[in-house]
Queue: 2 jobs
Job 1
Amino acid sequence: MPRESTEAKTARIKKIIAGLKRTYPDAHCELNYSNPLELLIATILSAQCTDKRVNLVTAELFKKYRTAADFANASLEDLEQAIKSTGFFRNKAKSIKSCCQALVDRHSGEVPRTMELLTELGGVGRKTANVVLGNAFNVNTGIVVDTHVARLSQRLGLTKAEDAGKIEQELMTLVPQKEWTLFSHWLIWHGRRRCYARNPDCANCEILNLCPRIGVKLPVGTR
Ligand code: SF4
């Protein structure tokens, strides 16, 4: 791809956003939750696991544990059993317990609304904090970079970075802040429905004319 000026990239990204907005007008977080605490727990569980599986697990989990104190006081074994099918359940159970203990000790059991306070909780990284802030509180503090966002950003020629933190910083300079939360939903939805990790469906892609298809070796129309 010939070198693209920042102006040209910004103009192209505007069109990409418009195309994805048209394609996925209802894009949203696909984890089920009814309050910030539930979203925080669901996001911790979603590491290396599908949202569908997490939703199956949390449908039961959230009936049994309703408050941060409930999770903090749960026995580690009970919690591990309840979340086992999401994988990495020992680490996840520890993270949930320590994070909920911190919520009880420092925030009266409430989920705080800033990146700084959220990432001070045990087991909560920047990505989890971005999910909670953007979706539970409508605060655009950053851009969630998961495997779909990383892959699509590279294919679309928006970044060459591999590291999630660097990708996020680059995207934040390109995407208008008011779109940060939705931008990751649009890329995640497109990654799940069209721009698959293997064999992306470029022939039917709604933003094909805006995509340099960096790293995609298949000719358009080959799947
Ligand atoms: S054209 Fe292909 S690589 Fe580019 S976004 Fe669409 S599906 Fe992905």
Job 2
Amino acid sequence: MGNTSYDLIVIGAGPGGYVAAIRAAQLGLNVAVVEREHLGGICLNWGCIPTKALLRSAEVYHLMGRAEEFGLSLEKPGFDLAKVVARSRKVAGQLAAGVGHLLKKNKVKVVMGTASLAAPGEVVVTSDTGEQRLSAPHVILATGARARELPGLEADGDLVWTYRHALNPPRMPRKLLVIGSGAIGIEFASFFNSLGADVTVVEVMDRVLPVEDEEISALALKAFRKHGLKVMTGASVKQLDRASGRVSAHIEHGGKVDRQDFDTVISAVGIVGNVEGLGLEALGVKVDRSHVVVDQFCRTGVDGLYAIGDLAAPPWLAHKASHEGVMVAELIAGKNPHPVRPESIAGCTYCQPQVASVGYSEARARELGHEVKVGRFPFIGNGKAIALGEPEGMVKTVFDARTGELLGAHMIGAEVTELIQGYVVGRTLETTEAELIESVFPHPTLSEAMHESVLAALGRAIHI
Ligand SMILES: Cc1cc2nc3c(=O)[nH]c(=O)nc-3n(C[C@H](O)[C@H](O)[C@H](O)COP(=O)(O)OP(=O)(O)OC[C@H]3O[C@@H](n4cnc5c(N)ncnc54)[C@H](O)[C@@H]3O)c2cc1C
């Protein structure tokens, strides 16, 4: 059976777990990672990566429809959903295989099976070939999360889908209802809308992308409607009546309930942590609404036991999971890592147009007692945006009026998911408006809108 005793055992090989394992191995620890399904976790197999591959097809298709505007000609654009999905699955497969190579290269032992804790430092792995026991003084729980299912609105894979079904859909929806306008819901709504489906999004909160700055949510709503999405905010789906090939949704809005028919429903109402079956209760690990309670170093309160990524506190994003993985590996190896600061982690939504943000919204900054200075710059004033044919969008920056510290940045428009990293670095370095103004941004780039937004906060924008 070989070695069963390690310095560290990581349970779950998603972006939290596999990155933690590799970093710990780099630091000289003898590491095993246990995975029950796929190396790469949700992110590589059923989340970040395959959705972006689908959205890329949608983007190219959308641009094909605009060929004439760019002086190009094209016979009627078309698509083959099976081929679009096959490309997405191939991309996911390539990256998941890459994780296997990386783990091997770093001499991390991969054990396929379902893990649970028999005692602190004692891990039982169950698989088709039986049961094995592993031990280590340190265990990182990185078991991630799955789609939340609301009673009566459960997925069946045929008429009602979760993200997993939507990533490998049995058909092209014609009339689609998306429940929830967070990043996952909006990305699928955007994808199927671009391919020509008639899409309705129902959001219980009073605005779309509810975690974003209110002004960005409002611009996003306007853009989504312009692109043909039907959006109902302050509305909720109470019931789904399923019949052959048809779902009748009871949608409550403004105090009354309407019924609307759809051929497909995607439920995107959040996630729940994979806390079950791990043996947490017996160890006294605290769980709050399906997520493990941890301190700023991801410690669970049980000696040597850590929880990272989607299993632990928000934001539930892959880069947060990976960063926590690195931090915990370094902590275990006796280094002195900084805790992860959730307010400096960017959130990105790859819809049409894209949305990205970091730090505090204007409202949140005010709530926290900051007197704020706000800069806004529209993409219509940016040369590169016009040249790209992407004038839709805005960059909003929020500064502390007294110290000039960058508190938050909020963007909507082309490629903002690539641009936001500039402000992330700024947040990490606790930058001020003066330093951002001193920075010279290359021309012509969309990033100049980031500079102009800072200038606008001081009433100094040049191109508007
Ligand atoms: C459709 C979709 C799109 C997304 N897009 C983005 C995006 O663009 N950007 C972004 O940052 N985030 C995105 N996310 C979120 C991102 O996927 C997660 O934040 C990330 O995967 C969390 O990483 P993790 O390592 O904590 O968990 P996971 O990736 O969920 O990995 C956990 C792993 O643990 C394994 N496991 C669970 N229990 C056990 C057990 N008992 N024994 C052994 N193995 C176990 C699972 O099989 C899984 O492989 C998206 C999510 C979805 C669903």
